[in-house]
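Onboarding guide, step 5: your first structure request.
Type a short instruction followed by the sequence, for example:

Predict the 3D structure of this protein.
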Amino acid sequence: MPLELLRIDERLIHGQVLVGWGRPLDLDFYIIVDDALASSEWEQELWASALADEEGAEFLGVDEAARRFGELSARVRRSALLTRDTTTMRALAERGCLDGRTVNVGGVYAAEGRRKILDYVHLSPEEVEDLRAIGEHASVSARSLPTAPEIRLDARKLR
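The system replies with structure tokens like these:
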């Protein structure tokens, strides 16, 4: 399956994703689902500048990503789908895009109103609810890198 990684990470495209995940999974294409970025060409150029020449990216709003999910999943290139927040991933889940898949949570950092779940995952009550909703469609786990242990974020862990 060419869509190798579904990840929630506030930093989107950065070294940990590109090197830590991209190399071991042999990723060469990144689908960034973010309504604000989808409408800002200069921000897209800025984010895409982190990519190597042989890598590519596409920036989509939630509605377009949901509409094109089948096509995105069937790409020949090995891809990652990234969102910067739980709300966006939940929107994809509720449109049936994530059924039977695994969503990786990583890089959701400390902020006011969030509590620590793991060193690299801090969640607000709303984000916990989003992950519970995603969990009705997909497996939800946290893992900083593919070599790290996978920690399932089930209802018990998200209390």
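Each response can be followed by summary notes, for example: The chain has one domain: 3-152.
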